[in-house]
Every structure is written in C-alpha cells, then in structure tokens.
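We treat protein structure as text, and this decision shapes the records that our systems exchange. Below, we set out a record of this kind in full and without editing:

***
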Amino acid sequence: MVVAVGRRIVALAVWLTENTPNILLGVGVALALSTLLGAVPILGAVLNVFLSKLLLLIGFTAGAIEDIRMHAMKDALDRVAARFAPLKDGLAA
C-alpha cells in the first residue's frame, strides 16, 4: 500500500515536470540562488532564512506565469480534467 502511494506520487511529479517545464526551471534557479546566498559568510545564514522562501515563491510564480503564457499549464490541466470527467456524471450537484 505504501509503495503504491509512493509510486503514485512519483508518477504525479514526473507528469508535472514533463508538462510544466518552466515551473521546474524557476524552482531550480531559486534553489540555486538560495544555496549561493547561504554560502556567503556572516550574513548568508541570516539572509537565507528570510530570502530562501521568497526566492522559491518568486521562481515558482515566474515559471507558472510563463507556462500559462505558453498554454502548457492550461493544456495539462485540461488533460487532468478529462481524466476525471467520467466521475462528474455520477455525482449529484
């Protein structure tokens, strides 16, 4: 059971990276900048506590905006919605 859940999570992560590549790039750049910021002597550790989350948020948001512009995210979400479309008919509104 635990292995099946883990496989499902990994499958979802792989699917997201294939369908929204700019988010992955934005998060990767943000993590690299956070690592470099943390390596600065004296002030790096203090600044890293506050700025790492902000850099991650900015990287994710910039990547998501670029994916939306390229319609990659819309196409991906439409495919997810199509997977769950059969369930929509069986549910009472």
Remarks:
- The chain has one domain: 2-90.
- Residues 2-90 form one domain.
- The chain has a mean pLDDT of 84.
